[in-house]
Amino acid sequence: MIRIGDILEKVRGYNQKADLELINRAYVFSAKAHAGHVRQSGEPYLTHPLQVADILADMKMDVTTIVAGFLHDTVEDTDITREDLAASFNEEIAFLVDGLTKISQLEFKTKVQRQAENLRRMMISMAQDIRVIMVKLADRLHNMRTLQHLDPEKQAKIAQETLEIYAPLANRLGISWIQAELEDLSFQYLYPEAYRTLRQKVIQRRKEYDAYIEKVIGILTKVLNEHSINGEVTGRTKNLWSLYNKMQRQGLPFEQIYDLIAFRIIVKSIRDCYGVLGIIHSIFKPIPGRFKDYIGVPKSNRYQSLHTTVIGPIGERMEIQIRTREMHQTAEDGIASHWRYKTGDESQPDEEMKRFKWFKHILEELKEVEDPRELMETVRTDLYPDEVYVFTPKGEVKEFPLGATPIDFAYSIHTDVGNQCVGAKVNGRMVPLKYVIKNGDVLEIITSKGHKPSKDWLKIAVTSSAKSKIRAFIKKEERERSLKIGEELLDRELRRMGSTLKKMRKTEAMEKAATGFGFHKVEDLIATVGFGKYSPRQVMTRLFSEEELEKILGEQEETLTLARKSREKARREGIVVDGVEDLMVRFAHCCNPLPGDDVVGIVTRGRGISVHTVDCPNIEAARYDRDRIVDIHWDEKIKIPRTVRIRVTSEDVKGILSEITGLISSKNINITHADIRTSSDDKAINNFEVEVQDVRQLRDLLNSLSGLSGVISVERLRTR
Ligand code: MN
Predict the structure, then answer these.
(1) Is 631 one of the annotated active-site residues of the chain?
(2) Known catalytic residue: 387?
(3) What is the pLDDT of the chain when averaged over all its residues?
């Protein structure tokens, strides 16, 4: 069992000015408070606060934190109150212990709550004083080290919580040695078989590893010496949990884990870091994509280092981290390295404190927070500035860059979920797809089979993976559509030449034509025609001789190419087909669309794009062949009057017809045809064909007509 004297000695080792008397007093206080209590192991309870204080001394924490370590369980487990601590020690110490008491009283229910709630309470304390977290990590570490005394169910629960919350927290704070130990301890209890096997293997190969490490250290040290760089080379295997994860992730057998040994070179200056990197890369072949400059761009927990992987001296992959002494300190101890009391005049604790001012900031915002999700949002801003964390409905956490939307989330689940995403619910409520996801949101994606992503999504998505999936889909769809249109255009042109695309498609002549245009496949040529890059006529020149073309097409005296003509026709009609030019457009007689009507286009064989209103019954019939439907819209800049039929039913009284026609003319609307009948029940049925600019003008006309006295009803007739 560790003794108080050992701890005092350890503290004195890194802090000569430490108030050891105060630490000793805390020890005595704790001993009295816990007197008679025993741990699950049967040991006196005091061993626990002693070990926690010792771990804190290993972390080189200040006196106040070590005192809090001794006292951390007193308020919760004994009669001691917060006030007692404030009176016997000071307010600061009482506050730290109070924070720890609160954390330990948490009971987590759902997974979401467990993560968010816990973070929340911890952060609240943290915001005021990060040292609460340091003590909590030490406390958890000792509890994990002595977990064997609990029953298996509790072991699993605590290990799971440690792996999910405390190890990542140690990571976030940059205290890597605590993270590694917590992970391995959790590993041992959560996956005992895998742990034992892996550990056994590492032990068996210890000698081999040690020899390898020694050899590489020798080589690297020699290299440094040759370049007169003062540096310290070390090598070690990673902790078991990261070995295990790496093997799982990359499907590596244990025999191949040479690159699971990391070498580290610690040098004096940043300049030396890059210098060493250059030397290493000139001697050993670097593996592309593995170099990371965390000196230029530190991690959010302030970790700095150069990382590279090279082909090492015996042909194996070798990972090397290069850093300065200070960076190393930060990497090992994280925030603790900035917290600890520094001896000597160069220490500027106030400056260091200022860097962590966000803790205080978090607290201020958190006091009022009841919803853990709100907390997550606040924490995000300060602790993880570029990331948001959200939950799937099953409670799984997913990480996204700031500004991500439900589209990104949908694609992160599965490409099909992304493509078929029609809506999203956040925390049970529908949100628009452009909603910016916030920390702690629970997202649910609503999909519909056959739904397709739109181009606009490219503006909404943030992650590159979502964007590339959307692009891929659109590209594929555009190609399919171009192919359809190209087939139609070529077929029409070939029919003029007395052939058909069906006949020509598989011929050598067609293949030659494709090659002539620089394509490998006939399909590509057809699609390019559909896309409007080449006209069907240009293709014809490769398929037929000049004489043939002259003979058949020359008679038609076409000065414009067919493509140009049809494009101009489309333009004249005021219809824009997305992404495609050179297309013939024709208005369907069944619904006779007017500018302003919602319209869709149907690719027809031999007759270009047929324009229908979206509610046209014939569209319904065509639905089963969805890929023939193309998006089109009206070109609003172009105003071409279009003819539409209307029916005005009125009383059959004298003068009413002239009133109706007078009103139509007064609106500057041409009547191109009129057809007046009297029905058997003495009503006048007046059918007109009128020329209107758009649907708005028509609506205005119908409104005015229905206001005339004697008019019973007015309607737009769909067919022409
Ligand atoms: Mn404890």
Answers:
(1) no
(2) no
(3) 80
